[in-house]
Amino acid sequence: MKSNSEYRYEIYRKLIHLFSTVIPVLYSLTSRDFMLMFIGFGTVLMILLDILKAYTYTFETLYTKVLGGILRDDEKDFKRNLFTGGTYYAIGIFLTVLIFPEEVAVFSILLMIWCDTMAALIGKRFGKTKLSGNKTLEGSFAFVATGIILVFVLQYVYPEINFYKAGFITVIIAAAFEQLSFIRLNDNLSIPVFSGFVFVIINNFI
């Protein structure tokens, strides 16, 4: 289990993730073109900020002072790891909206936001059974349980789509995928895109 201070910063990071629930909600109320423009602008801005903090001393100092407390250790080496988890997060959301229909994108983004968040918080606080890397069985259970709730919620929001058919299986496969520590892509990028493809394949071909 992490120390109280480390876990507190983890909570801060995940609260930011949970706040981004506004993105799929906004998508359901607007249009794909608007969301691509909105998220695309944010993604480009975050990439530019990452470049500035890596190669501009003044901005690096300011960035570290303001956001250094919530950065993971590997994210603090700005030149070696150019992008932060937040930037991968934005890229993952943009690609998901770009590739998939609205209902699939909303499901995949919410799955990343809520399932990955609950897996991290529960796993790091209560996880005892190690599976791979720093992932735990308890975290995976939290991932699946949260995903099941999302399936019921989205079945209500999008009654024309049979979320029961593909949603539950997608959640389980995504939870297993999240355990693959040898996957080099950041979870914030890989999980929503992977989940979207799994959902589409199951929904259309099975």
Write the layout of secondary structure elements.
Elements: H1 4-19, H2 22-29, H3 32-55, H4 57-67, H5 85-99, H6 102-126, E1 130-132, E2 135-136, H7 137-157, H8 163-178, H9 187-205
Helix and strand succession?
HHHHHHEEHHH
Number of strands: 2
Given as residue ranges, the uncertain stretches (5+ residues, pLDDT < 50) are: none
Q: How is the quaternary structure best described?
A: single chain
Number of domains: 1
Give helix % range: over 70%
Radius of gyration: 17 Å
Shape type: globular
Structural category is mainly alpha
Overview of this protein structure:
This protein has 206 residues and is mostly helical. It has one domain. The chain contains nine helices and two strands, in the order H-H-H-H-H-H-E-E-H-H-H. Strands 1-2 form a two-stranded antiparallel ribbon. Strand 1 and strand 2 form a beta hairpin. Helix 1 packs antiparallel against helix 6. It is globular, with a radius of gyration of 17 Å. The model has no long low-confidence stretch (mean pLDDT 87).
